[in-house]
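Hi,

Apologies if this is the wrong queue. I'm a grad student, and the batch job for AMP-binding protein from Cellulomonas humilata produced an output file that my downstream script rejects. I'm not sure whether the problem is my script or the file. Here is the sequence I used:
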Amino acid sequence: MTTVGPSRPNAASTGAPRDVAIPDEPLTAALDRAAQRWPGRTAVDFLGASTTYAELADAVARGAQVLLDLGVRPGDRVALVMPNCTGHVIAFYAALRIGAVVVEHNPTYSAGELAHQLADSGAVVALVWEKAVPRVLETLARTSLKAVVAVDLSADLPRGKQLALRLPLPSARRARHAMCGAVPPAFPMWHRLVAKAAPLDPAHPTPSSSDVALLQYTGGTTGTPKGAMLTHRNLVANAVQGHAWTGVEPGTDVVYGVLPFFHAFGLTLCLSYAMRVGATLVAFPSFDPAMVLSAQKRLPGTFLPAVPPMLDRLAVAAAASGADLTSFRYAISGAMALPAATAKKWEDVTGGLVVEGYGMTETSPVALGNPLTGARRPGTLGLPFPSTSIRVVDPTDVTREVEPGERGELLIRGPQVFAGYWGRPDETAEQLLDDGWLRTGDIVTVDGTGWVVLVDRIKEVIVSGGFKVYPSQVEDHLRGMPGVADVAVVGVPGGDLGETVVAAVVLEPGARGIDLDAVRAWGERHLARYALPRRLVFLDELPRSQVGKVLRRVVRESVLAG
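Support response: The file is valid. Your script probably expects a header line. Output copied below for reference.
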């Protein structure tokens, strides 16, 4: 039997308790406490503009009143379409304060992608980055939006940088074009509305912990995105679990917000965890190593949630420039496997730890992690978070648990598991079992002490000639081939075989002699013959999500399209 959770202690200590108490409160309560305990501490730093916890709480109260004046009521959906900035933090907490449901959107989405999500959620108000306003306005006929408010990213900058954007210089014009956009005259502007508003009456009712706080769209790599409903309790639970895992002293951390807030990973670690521990959040509108290293000189970071390509690029840039990153005590890597070489680079330049975690939008998002101690095991997903249980079962019969070391589908149960998919009861029933267990769709193995290793996604497993081929394992071997910079492995219809294994390869500059025969010869050293690629395609780069995860579905579509 492979059941791991609070009832079964692991052999290796994580340094965290097996269980944590989840307070019965809305997510906004943590911000209120932080403002009372550390009113003068910097809550958010945006490219040098500092906002204290007292100032943030005041702006959130004013923003909440603005939303009420716009007609937003408890349960209404408020769409946020903007990059990371101070205004994003204010808008997020303002909507939650009055019991509205936040719906996060990628601000670089096309009008069509935005239209689907806005229509599906039924959002009534959208707070939108200036550059995305024209795309949102295109969707009005297909959505329930009653008001669109523009967000000027430059309004969050220090005064000096705002003035510099107006200079008649090419560099200023480029910066202004990247950050700002034109909106219709007299268009409502978020920062102006907040500045003029009176603070919300403190007696205004707060949401309950069981209320939905967030619709986070997921499933874009495997099908039409659907809104995962995360309650206040879900988000509070994951922040409490994260604090138990890190053990950080409240009021001391400096969290670098390089992950997008509209992604579940960045949202939880930067918007909810950071506020719960009274951290200073250093927010970046996009990931730029030079921008991060510049901020590091001014306000050294202690904690970096990131994806492996970010860690790699920062470590390389720091080594090349001589930048000092030794203030970073720990980093948590997620969304994809953490290569051993990347982990070593990061730990060499920082002297701190980087550990791998695992989660999904439906778990708010973190469910497992490596301990932030020498007991960590690189290459594994780690152990269950506090108050989290897992099972590993036969994907074709979820009532049958597999033996330790045997491959099976990972199931998760805990206070961070979502409430279901918005407006999709059938899909909720497929994913969320009656007894509270969440089907992850991920194939893993678990050893006798509870350590979890990811094998692959069920939906991406290739069945060729009756054999199961796990793309991640094939990719791991092929990445070690000289001349191969990156690779994605997918399955396409293959006649009698069922599916044919195809390797999409990105070559290193100047690479020679790499063809299908060479790739198969290299793969034969480690792979079964049925797992060897039967087709090879070359790409300039692999399509990736906003946080850097390879989109195998897009690769497969490209292969099928020839």
